[in-house]
Amino acid sequence: MTFFRTLSLQARQLLAASLGFVAFLGLTGYALDRAFVETAQATMRERLKSYAYAYLGSIDFYRRSNELVAPEYPPDPRFDTPRSGLYAVVVGGAQWRSPSAATAGRELPDVIVLPINVEVFEGPIRSPVAEAGDSPAEFYIYSRGVGYEDDERHIDYTLAIIEDAAALDRQINVFRRALWGYLGGAGLVLLLLQTGVLRWSLRPLRRVVAELARVQRGGAQRLAEARPRELEPLAESINAFIVSEREHLDRYRNTLSDLAHSLKTPLAVIRSRLESETDDAAFRAEVATQIQRMSDLVSYQLSRAATTGHQLFAAPLEIEPAAEDIVRSLEKVYAEKGVLCEFEFDETARFYGEPGDLQELLGNLLENAFKWANKRVLLVVATVQGGEKRNGVQFSIEDDGPGIAPADVERLLQRGVRGDERVQGHGIGLAIVQDIVRAYRGTIRVEESTELGGARFLVTFPPGL
């Protein structure tokens, strides 16, 4: 079993095709062989029958005896040639043998007396006795029961035409050699043709493997576009995976780079204070301030790194339970405002990604809505139909706060920018949302809420592969 599991696709298909060819050619050869044998036997039967009718039309009896008067010219000259392989025999009320059968003796099979007008075709029948050194011969026999009647008598007899099966066997053997020779040649040609077809059919797969190797070596950025329709989903998934992994790597590199760059300033401040003359209290206050700043920076960078991005084969996640947990926490934080959050959920809506990304996305958007709302927040989740692809999902988060001016939308989505410097925060929540949306190939739109009057964040994740 291990051998078959390790076979290549081409070897598997070639083996399956070979077995199919062998079975097909074997059944075809058997069917043609049986058809030829039956046709040859039927032809022999009709020929022997015609000989019998030729004899019956010319045989007569002597007036005062039951002896037959044989025709002067038999229907085939072999009837007059001893041991020619073609014989005529009469048994029953009259006895007679053709010259060819007169010397055959007991080599011929016994002929059964038949009722009048009954005909029988048998064969091949082995002869009961053969001459010394000879193998038993086989014969085909056509027999017919006949009644003869004139003014003085009535005679019932059976006429049998017997032919050696050797000639028919030779004919069948010649046909079989030709048949299996042609079928074997046709099978070999078809097998070679199938091998060529398989190599041609699997060439796109070999091309994909070669392109993947080139991508691994850094010689290409993605798989080529031209490929058979059946390989499109595979190639698109591989390309999406390559892009996703590169984006992950770039994000991690950028996060570490940004963190290192951000920590330079606080560390430089601390170093300069160490080198300057100052009292202990002022130094401790300055160090505490810079440590808090570094802590905030680290928290920000870790939060951004936590957004794992687009997962190609992630399981679908229910959205409502996660949203309910986030809203319960926010209602406690903003309890003094008495904000009411309303839900409108499509029960079939699912998020295809990491649970942490869903938490970050909803958490930041809902927290922003709670922060700026007066009394009401509305969360609407709808399914984006994908047809043959998996469905997408759309989030709509609205509040009844002051809203966002269109000119400020792009600026507020930048890292570290806050809508109001007097409001506590780091200005990174919406930037994290934007990173997640971009990683999942989604879109984010900020507009005025027609229902509540404040801001409306519309996040759409398109149908996937």
Question: Can you characterise this structure?
Answer:
The protein has 10 helices and 14 strands. The chain is of the alpha+beta class. The chain folds into 3 domains: 208 residues, no CATH class; 70 residues; 146 residues, 2-Layer Sandwich (Heat Shock Protein 90). A 5-stranded antiparallel beta sheet has the order 4-3-7-6-5. A 5-stranded mixed beta sheet has the order 9-11-12-14-13, with helices on one face. Strand 13 and strand 14 form a beta hairpin. Helix 7 runs parallel beside helix 8 and helix 8 packs antiparallel against helix 10. The radius of gyration is 50 Å and the shape is rod-shaped. About 3% of the residues have low confidence. Keywords: ATP-binding, Hydrolase, Kinase, Membrane, Nucleotide-binding, Phosphoprotein, Transferase, Transmembrane, Transmembrane helix, Two-component regulatory system. This is histidine kinase. It is an enzyme of class 2 (transferase). It catalyses: ATP + protein L-histidine = ADP + protein N-phospho-L-histidine. One of its GO terms (molecular function) is hydrolase activity.
Strand order of the largest sheet: 4-3-7-6-5
Number of domains: 3
Pick out the low-confidence regions: 416-427
Distance between termini?
34 Å
Q: Note the run of SSEs as H and E.
A: HHEEEEHEEEHHHEHEEHEEHHEE
